[in-house]
Specification:
By secondary structure, the chain is of the alpha/beta class. It has 12 helices and 8 strands. β5, α5 and β6 form a beta-alpha-beta unit. The two termini are 37 Å apart.
């Protein structure tokens, strides 16, 4: 298989490593608007060749779109305009707006909407790592709108990694990712701003930060260029879960003001129930 990856960052670059190493791809073509990213991808041997978008589409069996969501909204219809038998997939974190935009496209069946649930707080080709996706989960959305051939090929791509696959409609996907991914990032951004505002001694942050603090603010290192388009496209669902998060913070604040430590204990016990879901 010749695979073009558009957007050679953490996700696109890590897919390039994995699909080349496991033999699914014979050749990886890189497309990126940033020439520096292409240079880094070459130096790290993430790609075998680089081309402009039009050339890469014609030379490929599979085209993987792995750009920020606002760029993806613009590029996906243009890519579908040019494909013949090629299969197109994306790795985006939101789906409703994207799928609505190409719902009536005559080449819609050549496209499979996917979201591999893996990542780190880092970005760019230098952040790409082997085994990022191993034994993780990927979501395929609205599979009935993809051709059987395209669906089977993309399923085999993810199974080769290997990843488990779940199937959701686009609306359900965006709701659930708001709950388990998007709110986590907003919480981390807010916690980082809180600490930076209250603790002016950066050396003390560095000296006293434990593993718990580091894991809590890890996501605050994430790129705003990637996350603002996600929050924009999933705004309603993010606002819904953010309202609930603020409500829960207010409950903790209230019991602390009242010095109701018995209730505080009960709230923490209730939160421990997450252990039933996440081991």
């Amino acid at each position: 298989m010749t695979i073009t990856i558009i957007g050679i960052g953490l996700i696109g670059g890590s897919l390039a490593i994995t699909l080349k190493e496991n033999g699914f791809a014979k050749k990886i073509i890189g497309v990126d608007i940033n020439s520096e990213n292409i240079d880094k991808a070459y130096r790290r041997r993430l790609i075998d060749d680089d081309m402009n978008l039009d050339e890469a589409i014609q030379a490929s069996d599979i085209i993987i779109l792995s750009t920020p969501m606002d760029v993806m909204m613009d590029l996906l219809p243009k890519i579908l305009d040019q494909v013949k038998d090629q299969i197109v997939m994306d790795t985006g974190s939101t789906k409703v707006s994207l799928l609505k935009k190409i719902k009536t496209h005559p080449k819609r069946k050549n496209y499979v909407a996917t979201h591999p649930m893996a990542g780190t707080e880092y970005s760019g080709p230098e952040a790409a790592i082997p085994n990022l996706f191993d034994k993780k989960c990927t979501v395929i959305c609205d599979r009935k709108d993809s051709s059987k051939k395209a669906l089977k090929k993309i399923e085999s791509l993810y199974q080769s990694i290997p990843m488990s696959i779940i199937y959701l409609d686009a609306k359900s996907h965006d709701i659930h990712t708001a709950y388990v991914s998007h709110i986590s990032h907003i919480s981390s951004f807010a916690l980082a701003l809180t600490v930076l505002e209250k603790e002016k001694d950066e050396n003390r942050i560095f000296e006293l930060a434990s593993g718990g603090f580091d894991s809590s603010v890890r996501l605050a290192k994430s790129s705003p260029d990637m996350w603002i388009p996600i929050f924009k496209q999933n705004r309603d669902n993010v606002l819904d879960v953010l309202d609930e998060h603020i409500n829960q913070l207010a409950r903790f604040r209230s019991v602390l003001i009242k010095q109701d430590y018995q209730k505080f204990h009960k709230l923490i016990q209730e939160s421990n129930e997450i252990k039933r879901i996440i081991k």
